[in-house]
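ESCALATION

Customer reports they have been waiting on this structure for their group meeting. Please prioritize. Original submission:
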Amino acid sequence: MSRVGRTHAVLLAPLLCIVACTSPAGDAPSGARFVALGDTIAREARSGLEWTRRDDGVGRDWHAAEAYCRVLTLGGAGWRLPTIGELRSLRVPSAHTPCGDVTCGIDPLFAISSPYVWTGTAQGEAARTYLDFQFGTELTPSIGPRLLRRVLCVRTGL
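Update from on-call: job pushed to the front of the queue and completed.
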């Protein structure tokens, strides 16, 4: 390829990526697991689930966390707490994403201010599961007003 041809290829490559790598529908670039639908929502390419991309920095007891998602209207309604399996799908053990004073194994598209995130998964009437994104452990304590965790909400894509 001539020098002129290489120059045109270098100049055109970013433009071609803008056209091919993005779309108004928020489609994921080839091979991407998640696509950002703006600053606040991400869509999982395979399942179509939509996620809030960050917690709001507030620790909530489980009942307040469940209510927070239920009334959330970010980009529309239908939000809920994720199941433990859904939340675990955000875990990337090799990631070192900042989350408070530590780093967490969470996809870097997401931002959490603490490693501990609630799920809607119940183990009896008074026990709910949360995920520790620092170590990847699932814990199911009795829920009480003093047990405060962060919240990422999920919904079936619109």
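Sent to customer with the following note: The helical segments are 3-21, 62-71, 84-88.
Escalation resolved.
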